[in-house]
Amino acid sequence: MKIKAKGPEFVELDYTPMIDMTFQLIAFFMILINFSDAEVDDRVQLPSSAIAKPPSAPSEMPLTIQMVRDGKIIMNAQLLPNAESLRPYLKNEKSVMELKRQNPKDVNIIIRAHKDSKTGLVQQIIKVCQEIGFEKFTLRAKSEAAY
């Protein structure tokens, strides 16, 4: 006995819901990605410190400035020759914060300086930041393992 199937021989699947769900999952996971390592540059080797400890909580408004061994500065993926060249970038950050009704004094400037860089250059960075209106600073160091 032969059984004949009722309905069309060719069934076309609608992939729209599956593609829509895939894009929603991609967007969801992009939001959850931790971007804290995005502000880390391999050219900056942090100094070691026995008293260094990781931050207890992430900063609400961090702004990262990095200094490589030869004293050049990295900010917003731009390689700058010295601390004075930070001024336009810092003024831009300040104006954006003011447009968002945020106080620049609440921003935490995170300074990542290479272990062989000169301390005076770090002080110049802090001075320029203070002249623009930033007041909070964090110096990053690599913690030594206590044995």
Characteristics:
3 helices; alpha/beta; 147 residues; 7 strands; two-stranded parallel ribbon
Q: Could you give a short description of this structure?
A:
Helix content is 30%, strand content 18%.
Query: Oligomeric form of this entry?
Result: single chain
Q: Structural class of the secondary elements? A: alpha/beta
Number of strands: 7
Instruction: Report the helical percentage.
Output: 25-40%
| Alpha carbon gyration radius | 25 Å
* Spatial strand sequence of the major β-sheet: 4-3-2-5-6
Largest beta sheet, briefly? 5 strands, mixed
Query: What is the total domain count?
Result: 1
Distance between the termini: 82 Å
Q: Categorize the overall geometry.
A: elongated
The low-confidence parts are none
Overall average residue pLDDT: 81
How many helices? The count is 3
Bin the strand percentage: 15-25%
H-E order:
HEEEEHEHEE
Structure description:
- By secondary structure, the protein is α/β, with parallel strands linked by helices.
- The protein has one domain.
- It is 30% helix and 18% strand.
- It has 3 helices and 7 strands; from the N terminus they run H-E-E-E-E-H-E-H-E-E.
- The chain has helices at residues 16-32, 87-99, 119-132, and strands spanning 48-49, 62-67, 73-75, 78-80, 108-113, 136-139, 142-143.
- The strands form 2 sheets. It has a 5-stranded mixed sheet with strand order 4-3-2-5-6, with helices on one face. It has a two-stranded parallel sheet with strand order 1-7.
- The protein is elongated and about 95 Å long.
- The N and C termini lie far apart (82 Å).
- The mean pLDDT is 81.
